[in-house]
Design goal:
Elements lengths: L13 H6 L7 E4 L3 E5 L7 E7 L6 H7 L1 H17 L7 E3 L15 E5 L9
The protein binds adenosine monophosphate and zinc ion.
């Protein structure tokens, strides 16, 4: 399993395993630092998750540990939105902390679009 030698790879992290190809995913786009794949439980016509390949627990840890990787995640999110025909109208969400709904503790940016959104969010 060559992927276990990747920097930051943690064998018990779902999204590390997905990035390594050990968990199936519908990948829509990728860069050398980030991977974008469809959420298994979509909350909008477009619901894609963008993750850094390296393991960081949340957006703040990524911003602190590797700011350029965070920028890559956001740029890839915009590229996915463009490819999905969202024409600049989409919602980006980082749930941070269990109390805010984070369930997978590997940074992931939700890219949601294709329907109207309300504010404040639920
Ligand atoms: P969060 O609640 O912000 O931590 O988001 C985790 C997201 O990961 C949820 O929207 C899940 O539907 C999604 N998810 C969990 N397992 C997988 C998987 N194997 N492939 C794609 N998306 C997943
Ligand atoms: Zn991970």
């Amino acid at each position: 399993m060559s992927s276990s030698s990747d920097p930051g790879h943690t064998g018990d992290c779902l999204f590390c395993r997905l990035v390594a190809g050990d968990v199936p995913a519908e990948v829509v786009e990728a860069t050398d630092r980030s991977v974008a794949f469809r959420d298994v439980n979509p909350q909008a016509p477009t619901h894609v998750l963008v993750v850094p390949r390296a393991h960081h627990a949340n957006a703040v840890e990524l911003a602190t540990g590797d700011p350029e990787a965070l920028a890559d995640v956001v740029r890839l999110a915009d590229s996915v939105a463009e490819a999905e025909g969202l024409a600049g109208d989409y919602r980006l969400v980082f749930n941070t902390g269990a109390g805010a709904g984070q369930t997978v503790f590997h940074t992931h940016l939700h890219v949601l679009g294709g329907r109207p959104f309300t504010w404040p969010p639920g």
